[in-house]
Amino acid sequence: MIKVLFVCLGNICRSPLAEAIFNKKLQNEGLSNKIMADSAGTGNYHVGENPDPRTIEIAGKHGIPVNHKGQQFKKHHQTDFDYLVAMDHSNQSNMIAEMGEHPEKLLLMRDFDPYGKGEDVPDPYYGGTNGFETVYQILDRSLVEFLTFLKKKHNL
């Protein structure tokens, strides 16, 4: 089983949305028995909480169920997961600080975005639902490419 962890700051907006979209893609392609996804936040602000209502609303608009409780990224995630995917450079730096190194498995989400390679997935928390829709679109196209990468690398 290939294990992927998506990571943002609070684990209520971007990373649970990435997790939900990715799990739906896995289900659609019949890969749920080969790849699994989870998400976490570098901060401890929302541990045990449901995702932001706007995350759930935008996901629902696209037919994506969201089932997650906030959790904080910890050093042990480095050994528990095969891929650690940060939503932005700040999250990536925080993860490196927690782990004490920059492992090869630590990736940036938008490194897979054909329209914004290397850029940050913007944090929509302080905006309206339009920002969440923008994040959905970024994640959706980036996750198509990420899944293609995984299928090729692991011969799936």
UniProtKB/TrEMBL annotation:
<dbReference type="InterPro" id="IPR036196">
    <property type="entry name" value="Ptyr_pPase_sf"/>
</dbReference>
<protein>
    <recommendedName>
        <fullName>protein-tyrosine-phosphatase</fullName>
        <ecNumber>3.1.3.48</ecNumber>
    </recommendedName>
</protein>
<keyword id="KW-0378">Hydrolase</keyword>
<dbReference type="GO" id="GO:0004725">
    <property type="term" value="F:protein tyrosine phosphatase activity"/>
</dbReference>
<feature type="active site" description="Proton donor">
    <location>
        <position position="123"/>
    </location>
</feature>
<feature type="active site">
    <location>
        <position position="14"/>
    </location>
</feature>
<feature type="active site" description="Nucleophile">
    <location>
        <position position="8"/>
    </location>
</feature>
<keyword id="KW-0904">Protein phosphatase</keyword>
<dbReference type="InterPro" id="IPR017867">
    <property type="entry name" value="Tyr_phospatase_low_mol_wt"/>
</dbReference>
<dbReference type="Pfam" id="PF01451">
    <property type="entry name" value="LMWPc"/>
</dbReference>
<dbReference type="InterPro" id="IPR023485">
    <property type="entry name" value="Ptyr_pPase"/>
</dbReference>
<dbReference type="InterPro" id="IPR050438">
    <property type="entry name" value="LMW_PTPase"/>
</dbReference>
<comment type="similarity">
    <text>Belongs to the low molecular weight phosphotyrosine protein phosphatase family.</text>
</comment>
<feature type="domain" description="Phosphotyrosine protein phosphatase I">
    <location>
        <begin position="2"/>
        <end position="149"/>
    </location>
</feature>
